[in-house]
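the two lines:
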Amino acid sequence: MSLSTSTTATPVAPSRGRLRPLGLDEVALTGGFWADRQHLNAAATLPHIEDRLEREGWIANFDLAAAGTLPAGRRGREFADSEVYKYLEALAWEIGRSGSTDRAAGALEARFDAITARVAAAQEPDGYLNTMFGRPGQRARWSALGWGHELYCTGHLLQAAVARARTRPGTDDVLVEVARRAADLVCDVFGPGGIESVCGHAEIEPALVEFARVTGEERYLAQAALFVERRGTGTLGDIEFGRSYFQDDMPVRAATVLRGHAVRAGYLSAGAVDVAVERNDAELLAALTTQWENTVARRTYLTGGQGSHHQDEAFGEDWVLPPDRSYSETCAGVASIMFSWRLLLAQGAPRYADLIERTLFNVVATSPSNSGTSFFYANTLHQRRPGTPAPDSDVSPRASSTLRAPWFEVSCCPPNVARTLAGLTAYLATTDDDGLQLHQYAPATIRTALPGGAAIALDVDTAYPRDGVVRVTVRADAGTPWTLTMRVPAWAQGARLIVRTAGDPPAERAAEPGTVHVRHHFREGDVVELHLPVQPRFTAADPRIDAVRGCLAVERGPEVLCLESIDLAAATGGRHTDVAAVRLDADAPPQEADGAVTVRLRPLVAPAGPWPYAAPDPHPDGAAEDGAEDGAEDGFDVPLVPYHDWAERGGSTMRVWLPTDTPAQRG
Amino acid sequence: MSLSTSTTATPVAPSRGRLRPLGLDEVALTGGFWADRQHLNAAATLPHIEDRLEREGWIANFDLAAAGTLPAGRRGREFADSEVYKYLEALAWEIGRSGSTDRAAGALEARFDAITARVAAAQEPDGYLNTMFGRPGQRARWSALGWGHELYCTGHLLQAAVARARTRPGTDDVLVEVARRAADLVCDVFGPGGIESVCGHAEIEPALVEFARVTGEERYLAQAALFVERRGTGTLGDIEFGRSYFQDDMPVRAATVLRGHAVRAGYLSAGAVDVAVERNDAELLAALTTQWENTVARRTYLTGGQGSHHQDEAFGEDWVLPPDRSYSETCAGVASIMFSWRLLLAQGAPRYADLIERTLFNVVATSPSNSGTSFFYANTLHQRRPGTPAPDSDVSPRASSTLRAPWFEVSCCPPNVARTLAGLTAYLATTDDDGLQLHQYAPATIRTALPGGAAIALDVDTAYPRDGVVRVTVRADAGTPWTLTMRVPAWAQGARLIVRTAGDPPAERAAEPGTVHVRHHFREGDVVELHLPVQPRFTAADPRIDAVRGCLAVERGPEVLCLESIDLAAATGGRHTDVAAVRLDADAPPQEADGAVTVRLRPLVAPAGPWPYAAPDPHPDGAAEDGAEDGAEDGFDVPLVPYHDWAERGGSTMRVWLPTDTPAQRG
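prediction for all of em together
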């Protein structure tokens, strides 16, 4: 088989699969939740990141390398190079997104070129490019594969080059040539007969496949496949966390669930899907599908977040999903989207888009502040102590911050969010031979063509997720019937579809969760409206998730809501100031009025004592014991906020999962 | 003030305080739960440890140092020296315990002397003794105070010398002289005008005070006080875990609760109590008392275990006590006992002995296997996956083992348990001017004298904790009235006291939790019997401990019980094989028959599905919904085992906290 090179300006461009991704030139966000975030990303986050990369000296490391003065003066951790590459990737997608229409595009180009030149100057004659290894006074190249992140950094270099090649195709781009030399060296060194190992942090795998897709070079795909097959054969040493930390405990195709470091697991899975798709490896794809299913069914937070352990930033055992020690790293959310998007393109099932939507709204959107210049690294679902804001100048030690922080010693998350938001437009829709699929809902214009040549032009109007109506207006007659497919999220019980096509009476029907299809020879002005029920709802957890037993959460559409102490204090006139002091009245469904969702809370009866364990109270003060009259006296209505908005008003305690009655309460 | 040197053969010998500790020559365990463990410790654990110390080369490090061939060949982590010292301390207590009566004492002496000679040979002329620092090719002395464990190792050297001096007093002991030179160097280097810092791992603090108590040297006490006062002034650098990790976030006397690394926190607290007592520092003692109270009320597991985080082996926030990610390091249990015992001697309150008992039975007794040659490092309260036994030759990477392991890369716990068990006899009883206090219950003989000279002779007979009757028989007429004080554990509601003294009718009365006192001119043969209600009981947790909401535990006397899958499978004929699959019938109290405690369980209804969150079931299959007839049909009786016995029959899943009904269960 041979790779077909794609020039679609999109993050993932497989040679085959159920669905075809659209490019940033085919879809545009025109307003609403995600367009606002894309604009903030361009206006605030990208300049913030570049400023920090300069201040921390992580770009200057390349200058030192070029000047031959490393290792003296090198700053940052072993993966600092990768943050520069992720920033370049984000710039490339942003150039592709805003492209020819944006006055700032020239300035973006200049920034991209300037940093690329500094990176390129550091590359050695044989293609090696890493500021941490290989020079006198540094560790030898490839001498620390377990923890050195060398191939990980190369992977992000390749991803930046992929973004560049797809958004500025057809030129002999400097970064693409830098990446080509680096990729060739990787194949020389790690190919057949070379070093038989892998990188402790997966990333080179999807990067090599994508770079193969850009360049048409089969060798890169073969090398990626080799890395995927080697993983799990014990080529990395054993470590205190266990080999599962870097997924070296068992072969990818033997695993049944994701485990170990969540970001590593997600990147590896993404690369393994890429390999499986390009090589038509049904066995490998089936194994990855099973892993996705089991991970989603047993090891994923309500927010879509993944990773339950702070210790090793790792998945826990099945059902270990503590809200107060949730790690749910922002980058693990990005990795999960990478994995799900590839399976969606390969297989077309709406469950993948469901998880992407959940993760976008509740992990990716949660990380950056409203200002776009501070970020959550970990995303706890339960904050027990109000944080204090970090000074702008501060550098937080990774996940320890209880509020968003402007930068981190390990600063993977800010540029990861930036590159995701810049390329987000690509995740809205796909096509197949028969029509177009809408996966995510946002105001947008779509102008593309089906493989047969039929021109598709659609406008999407919606106030989603605030409002549940998604209106698709056809803007051109394709000259032939085609099928519009719209995703109905799994939570959207009772959705309705209304079709208004020229010459026909309006047709309304139920739309079951999954996908709904309308096949028609659409004419300009035809409208398809999906009505999703976004009223707030209670959600309970599988009883095996011990950490939230006896609790309910509140969701509204794709958004998870949460209780913040600032709202609790305001609603109770200061009588209750901590979310630990209340419980939910589970008999009073959440209400929505004037755009605010409220729940009915009651005080939590918690006896003071020298020892927190005692005989159970035979008559617990639970909701079931209270008469309705009592409840009315004791309860108070408190507004919830979307989880992605939490901690925007300063330090607060916060809960997603609210305890209801407490039947086994101590006496 | 001046230090009075004590020669009592006991781990902690303050110059003042409410209670006076007894020596290993004054109390002997004569049978039962703890005597069995002491014998196993002597027969199996101590030889096992010495074998491992030799095999791992940690004793040989001293030989290399003496030969001048370090750092080449040095093995083990930076704290490897301390394991040798803790082993010497354990040997010293074991010599003191078995002493003149044990045929093996000569062999123990020979082992002690041989290792001491190898240690002594490595000491440098100025008193410095550490195999990891200070030589060409090693890091400079005192250059890595945050993580280097140099003073920590010295502390354990001093503790070994203290044990030696107290169990073989009056000689110019080699180890005591080695320790004296090392302590003098510490004072020279870290005293006024010296390095103004502390060790990242507390231990030198209690060690210096104890060594001052042995030697009468005020300078060591002053240095300990200086270390305690310096802690929390930020002399150590900031780290990713935060300065609280090594308690350098705030001064000891300003803190209100223990935080950070649990072993460090416990050792520091023990040393700070020692300083407060010797210096009559009421403010410091009050601060430590508050810290103990808040830690016990909000940050301690039902087992007495402390430390909720794997990441940094640290305390969590208040109420963060997840059973499935409990760390509860064995060494943190030892540290907690050290802290509580010192407060008990200083203040006399029975709550300290309550916590010691709980921690002894459920942490210290849990760590070693029945064979005495493998150990839990961390003590989870919920095992989700059955472990597989480690080969005898294995070295486990710290807490990652799901079964007891014969040794660890970080092997602090085995020798810590060994030294605790060897000296355990000392924790049974104390005296004051007025009489004798029994704190822990085990078959024992006690022969001591009150300060006024009255000779006390008692025998304790009991099958505790299997049986609740503790019979104290007076074996000598002291010639004067005195007071026998017995602790009534906080859980012992309904305890009774029966006094049978010569010439009086038997007197029975209620004994409320706390302490019960009998003042009498006891004659030989007089008997005081305490009847403690040890039938099994349900225990619930404070509702703020989110991780066990909706659960009950079962306790019996001082023992926490647990459900193991091996018993579940046997009791259900293999129908249920995983503790995740059942819930507790909270309406059926635990039953005891033929020495077995059983509870009534039912299947846990857990819907299979692709996503573990859904609308709550309006009619949950909870216990409250079931009629009694239904319950009889669905329930099955399953035996529980003491938590300290768990995992003795191979890999098993296990729960201490059993879910009851699930009112907020998903539909």
